[in-house]
Amino acid sequence: MTEARRRMLREGLTAGLLGYATVVALFALLNLAAGEWVLRTPFVLGSALLGSALDQPGAFGPILAYNGLHLLVSLALGTAAAALAARAEVDHDLGSGLVFIVLVMGGWVPLTFGAVTVEYLHVLAWPEVVAGCALGGMATLGYLALAHRTLVRALFREAAA
After folding, report:
1. CA–CA distance, 72 with 52 (Å, rounded to integer)
2. Measured between alpha carbons, how far apart are the two ends of the chain, in Å?
């Protein structure tokens, strides 16, 4: 594996992990603020994912199932975003659409899942889903912007010219 590919993979996994951790922290805080069990949201979402009964608080299977899926999707999205950022280093025309593409990828999947949790399961409210998507996306893009400062500066210079 080349050094460039290792760097892209490392950046992608880090970006995905940051997005994942941001969303996890948000929902843990929301659960605590509501006086609920800190793991209530992943428990309910995991129970729905597994088709399990929702009346078994303390069961960790649903929590592990949901968090496993959430982590895998976050890592995949982070890696795709890092691959786009690496490609944008070479092709600045692609860089101008990078933020849009990442937001679409990082927003569409969670918002689609969010629609199910809001409209069907009634687990979350839309403001919570939107906040989770926005914060997760900002964490991912923020990290990639720091990792690719030269690209960001170049894109701003090109946009201003």
Report:
1. 21
2. 38
**Whole-angstrom distance, CA of residue 23 vs CA of residue 43:** 15
Q: For residue 38, which of 17, 67, 74, 16 has the smallest C-alpha distance?
A: 67
- Residue where the block lists tokens 């999707």: 73
- Rounded to whole angstroms, the Cα distance separating 26 from 70 reads 14
Query: Tens of pLDDT along 43-67?
Result: 888 887 777 655 565 678 888 988 9
CA-CA distance, 56 to 54, in Å (whole number)? Answer: 6
Q: Cβ(107)–Cβ(35) under 8 Å?
A: no
Q: Of 126, 128, 127, 15, which Cα lies nearest the Cα of 71?
A: 15
Distance CA 132, CA 73 (A): 14
* Of 111, 151, 137, 135, nearest in space to 28 by CA: 135
Q: What is the pLDDT of residue 56?
A: 64
pTM of the model: 0.84
Contact 109/19 with Cβ under 8 angstroms? no
